[in-house]
Amino acid sequence: MDNKRKYVIPGDLVTTGPFRPEQNVLLEGNKIISTSIGISEIYDDSVRVIPLTGKYIPKINDLVIAKVLSHTSLSWELDINSCYVGFLPAQDVFGRDFSAHADELTSKLKTGDLVAARIANFDRTRDPLLTISDRDLGKIDSGALVQISPSKVPRLIGKRGTMIQTIEIATNAAITIGQNGWVVVSCESTEGLLKAKKAIQMVDEKAHIANLTDQVKEMLESESES
Amino acid sequence: MGGRDATMVLLDENGIRCDGRKIDETRKIMIKAGVLKNADGSAYIEFGDNKILVGIFGPRDVHPKHMSDTDTGILRVRYHMEPFSVSERKNPAPSRREIEISKVIKEALEPAVILEKFPRTAVDVFIEVFQADGGSRCAALSAASVALADAGIPMRDMVAACASGKVADTIVLDVNNEEDQAGQADMPIGYMPNLKKITLLQLDGILTPEEYKKCVEVGVNGCKIVYELQKKALTDKYFGNGSD
């Protein structure tokens, strides 16, 4: 598989032939062209480019870390680090019997609060609709927020979660990764928290390097010795 | 048009131009991607004596709201020359020329960017010219395309730009300021090198049909030279040195 990976910029030819174009590629005749800067990957029947830059574009079912911007009497508006504002209806938090007269929205979420949410619905006509009615979702009470480039989130997770597991095991921290590039790290010890933060920032900076998991592991181990 | 400065030799008998270049040679070009921290994407270009910085914001909310399009994102371009960019102080307010160049660059980038993925948003391109020499629109367009790629805006292809023109009855590549003032024609070209499509073509001056064909051909070759440098600027930033 590795010999099929290639660094590409917009306009570069990735491959020709009967492949299905997936993310960040375009079919022009029988040529498959990259539309962003990134690493191209050719699978058995499909081609995609993993971008190295770019803003977060919401996708249905994505887990995101959101920050409350403001609220109306019926809903909250949340910053999801995207060009669109996330929209969280009050019914989702208070339940079906929500009443705009009786319930005060600020009693649950105030401006500036961090929330782990899932994108429930999003299409080109409306702003993304968020939900927090699921396990592991809801207001985040403790932890540190680390902001990385959204395009580097897959790298931080790693193949089948290897990268994030490495960091979690070495530092004993609980890490929640939002697809929008916002990451919440919580850890009992300050030392572990700082180490985990450093490792996450390292992945953000060196995302294009091969064998990054080993490098991160090395860094974490050398830190614990000193 | 035509020989205002009688003492200047635009093209000598050995085919060397007033600044020592051959007829098919560009000026010295340097492009750097990602030079600004706070912008979503940026690029800096030195094209001969042109020094231009481009910053990109977006996709982001459109203000005023009525400008937004529910079907697609919109592209907004501002080309601006600093008061100190030319020898006589330039009024910083947008001039007729700057408004024209903003429009022309916007229309030259539009075929390349894929904004249908971001309805109701805008991508803002800010071009600041610190020092102007001939061919600043081409330099600005080349830099804007690198900055858009750096911002991660999906694009069908890069847009490379270079001018060609007619000086002393000869078709030459990359017309500089003196040649632009005293020469016979100036033709800025924007070109998508992989799709082999022209996105910008202007002509100031008079050419015969044969000269016109030659001029386009020479200009497109110049664009290909610029494209290699754009590619290098992006690979240097994202993949360290050397791709593959």
Structure characterization notes:
The complex is a heterodimer of chains A (226) and B (244). Chain A has 226 residues and is an alpha+beta fold. Chain A folds into three domains: 50 residues, OB fold (Dihydrolipoamide Acetyltransferase, E2P) (Beta Barrel), CATH 2.40.50.100; 77 residues, Beta Barrel (OB fold (Dihydrolipoamide Acetyltransferase, E2P)), CATH 2.40.50; 82 residues, Ribosomal Protein S8, Chain: A, domain 1. Chain A contains five helices and 16 strands. In chain A, strands 8, 9, 10, 11, 12 and 13 form a six-stranded antiparallel sheet that branches. In chain A, a hairpin with a 2-residue loop joins strand 11 and strand 12. The two termini of chain A are 38 Å apart. Chain B has 244 residues and is an alpha+beta fold. Chain B has one domain: GHMP Kinase, N-terminal domain (Ribosomal Protein S5, domain 2). Chain B is built from four helices and ten strands. A five-stranded mixed sheet of chain B has the order 1-2-3-5-4. In chain B, a hairpin with a 4-residue loop joins strand 8 and strand 9. In chain B, helix 2 packs parallel to helix 4. The longest helix of chain B is centred in the last third of the chain and has 30 residues. Chain B starts with 28 loop residues before the first strand and ends in a 6-residue tail after the last helix. The mean pLDDT of chain B is 92. The chains are: A alpha+beta (226), B alpha+beta (244). Chains A and B meet through loops of A and strand 3 and helix 4 of B.
